[in-house]
Design brief:
Helix content: 55-70%
Oligomer: single chain
Distance between the termini: 26 Å
Number of strands: 0
Shape: elongated
Largest sheet: none
Length: 155
């Protein structure tokens, strides 16, 4: 993908993508109806809490390493963080975003919303994460490529 095309695709930051997908989920729920199950609210709350905790742990580790948390300019990263939660996932904040969306889907109770979770993962992989990975590979070279070989993108 050409850089100009990629910049046009990256105009919406990841939190905006989450809000957009969440809004689409709400619309889908209105059109398709929903399902209810015992403990639905509690399960959604548990998944939400896990997502927020994961995001907080990742942000704390990035801040401790004195590197950027913001995904808009990955080339501004000052350190490659590979410890803590980053030993298990190269993108724990995006995984946290996915858990937030899963919690919302559970709360809404629409099976069709699971397709939108797939759309979120597809977009993040092909656009946001791909751009970040190229920038980090340029910045950190073999160290980053070795990290990618050891640690999965999501889980």
């Amino acid at each position: 993908m050409r850089p100009a095309t990629l910049r046009r695709l990256l105009w919406l930051p990841p939190p905006g993508v989450v809000v957009l997908i969440a809004g689409l989920m709400w619309l889908v729920r209105r059109w398709s109806g929903g399902l209810a199950f015992a403990g639905q609210g509690w399960v959604a709350l548990l998944v939400l809490t896990a997502g927020l905790a994961l995001m907080a742990a990742a942000a704390w580790q990035l801040a401790r390493a004195h590197t950027t948390v913001l995904p808009f300019h990955p080339e501004q990263a000052s350190h490659l963080v590979t410890t803590g939660i980053f030993r298990r996932s190269r993108n724990p904040i995006y995984l946290g975003d996915l858990l937030l969306l899963l919690a919302w889907a559970l709360w809404l109770g629409s099976l069709f919303n699971l397709l939108l979770l797939g759309l979120f993962v597809l977009y993040m992989n092909r656009v946001q994460i791909a751009a970040e990975e190229r920038a980090l590979a340029r910045k950190f070279g073999p160290a980053y490529l070795g990290y990618c070989a050891r640690v999965r993108r999501w889980l």
